[in-house]
Amino acid sequence: MTSLPAGSDARPVERVLLLATPNTYRAQSFSAAAKKLGVEILWGLDMPAALCSGWPNVVALNLRDRAAAGSEIVALGQRSSFAAVLALDDAASLAAADACERLGLEHNAPAAALAARDKLVMREYLQAAGVRGPGYCAYDLQTDAVALAQRVAYPCVLKPTLLNGSRGVIRADSASEFVAAWARVRAIVVGSAGNQILVEDYMPGAEVAVECLLTAAGLQVLAVFDKPDALEGPFFEETIYVTPSRLADAVLVEIAAVTAAAAAALGLRTGPLHAELRINAAGVWPLELNARSIGGRCSSTVRLDSGVVLEELILLQAVGRALPALRREEGSRGVMMIPIPADGMLREVRGLAEARAVAGVDEVDISARLNYPLVRLPEGDGYLGFIVAHADTPGAVEAALREAHRRLGFVVEPQILLRAK
Question: First vs last Cα of the chain: how many Å apart?
Answer without folding.
Answer: 55
